[in-house]
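#onboarding

Welcome to the new folks! Below is a worked example of what a typical request in this channel looks like: someone posts a single protein sequence, and someone else replies with the predicted structure as tokens. Don't worry about understanding the tokens yet, we'll cover that in week two.

Example request:
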Amino acid sequence: MIAPCEAAAKNVDDKQVFMDVPYNFLTFHEVVDCIEAERGTGRFRYVVTPNVDHVVRMRGNVGLKEIYKRS
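Example response:
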């Protein structure tokens, strides 16, 4: 198992739900630290930033909601 960065680890259970979508609350600097921690590891990573249009469309689209849940 790959250990998450320190900021993500401390906030893993600190999620807020808005329009049925859970969000992790990390500061800009915490996100940058997480990205920097992965540099040079050779592991693939990505950052998901929900598009407001997608969040609204998820309310009526179970398939799209499932895609976001898995991201």
